[in-house]
Amino acid sequence: MSEQCCAIRIGQAVPDFKLETFDPVKGDFSEITLAAQKTAKKWTVLFFYPADFTFV
Asked: What is the pTM of this model?
């Protein structure tokens, strides 16, 4: 059985997403979207760290 979901390869565009973030300076949570980052012309670095449920 071969099942593949949501695979993104090098060079492909990343689909829009929404994430909850925490700002330690403000001590508050907020949301961020990839679309908002693109609109603001901000650099965005995505990384994945499997099996770790701690703040980075």
From this structure: 0.58
